[in-house]
Amino acid sequence: MSKELVEALDALEKEKGIKKQVVVEALEAALVSAYKRNYGQSRNVEVDFDQQAGEINVYAVKEVVDQVFDSQLEISLEDALKINKAYEVGDQIRFKVTPKNFGRIAAQTAKQVIMQRVREAERSIVYDQYIQYEKEIVTGEVERIDHRYVYVNLGRVEAVLSHQDQIPGEEYHPHDRIKVYIYKVENSAKGPQVFVSRSHPDLLKRLFEQEIPEVFDGTVEIVSIAREAGDRAKVAVRSTKDGVDPVGTCVGPRGERVQAIVNELRGENMDIVEWNSDPADFISNALNPAEVLNVIFDPDNERACTVVVPDDQLSLAIGKRGQNARLAAKLTGYKIDIKSESEFADLATNSEQEPTEQ
User: Which of 197, 224, 243 is the last residue of a domain?
Assistant: First the structure.
């Protein structure tokens, strides 16, 4: 067993990159527990693994004292001096107490420790591989589905796609190939856990980078994204170079670029709007396709405003179930109150007619 163990440790270091000394230290600690468990000893023991000869020995460690109270943990100075006249009170003496059949226990323990270290090393390798892809898009294959998750095979690990990370209404079937966004990688006790999403706003950002070279190289920058997955999204873009139309660049010839993204997201509607340093202009752009007549900012709240639109554009500006206004507010970071032109005029008239207190 001794020679085989040394060879196994050498192979482990060579093939798996697991340092021999790390395994030896873990093995020695495990053998101490195994000795106490199998021989019912509460004494202070150490296990020494001779890496050259491959021999494993157990030693009882006793402290030199003037008066012995516990013979398993202590040895008198008088007895210690009989062993070596150089011993003093406080010294530690090791006595070899290796049981005859300890080799069998050592072999079993060594096997368990090595297997555990191999599992840990493999987990670490997988974790190191996938932590590099955190915040990135990968393509995986749907493996199975249960009431909690869609399990997506990414190669060396099975990622989980929760209900909240799925696109509402999207159906998944085994062997489907889907693009997912890795938003979190955890190194848990059970091994690396990879969490992926189809509804995350950054999935949209990464898709734009994949489909639009100018976004990837920074010529066009995505400033903000507001998304209701599976239904509609608004993306604010700006150009970092003069003469480049950021919206047109993202839409592409005949809408081909943005259509590729829409297809990947199973028909999710996409509004690409131009970011503007002037908040009023940015808010007007964000409410596209509605026409905006005026943006009045609240003097008491710098992040709130009232937007005035033509009477026939009110429902368009608000959108179905308030979606257009909601996404515009999320995109710009402003609380937006939308009023029709006539409604705003009535409010202004009533305000002017209110008597002032003397």
Answer: 197
3-state secondary structure of 1: coil
pLDDT tens for 326-339 read 999 999 999 999 99
Q: Do residues 107 and 14 both lie within one domain? A: yes
Q: Of 197, 223, 246, at which residue does a domain stop?
A: 197
Is the residue at 20 inside a domain? Answer: yes
Number of compact structural domains in the chain: 4
88-100 per-position pLDDT tens digit = 999 999 888 888 7
Same domain, 156 and 53: no
The beta-strand segments (E) located in the chain are 45-49, 56-65, 74-76, 92-96, 137-145, 149-153, 158-162, 177-188, 191-197, 220-228, 232-239, 269-274, 294-297, 304-309, 335-340
- Residue 134: CB partners within 8 Å, gap ≥ 6? 182, 183, 184, 185
Residue length, the chain? 358
The answer to the question of residue 358 being in a domain is no
pLDDT at residue 358 in the model: 41
Give Cβ neighbours of residue 269 (< 8 Å, ≥ 6 apart): 231, 232, 233, 262
DSSP β-ladder status, 294-297 and 304-309: antiparallel
Q: What is the pTM of this model?
A: 0.68
Q: Which residue has the tokens 């047109």?
A: 248
Per the structure, the complete domain to which residue 244 belongs is given by: 200-275
Q: Any idea what DSSP says for residue 290?
A: S
Cβ(212)–Cβ(250) below 8 Å: yes
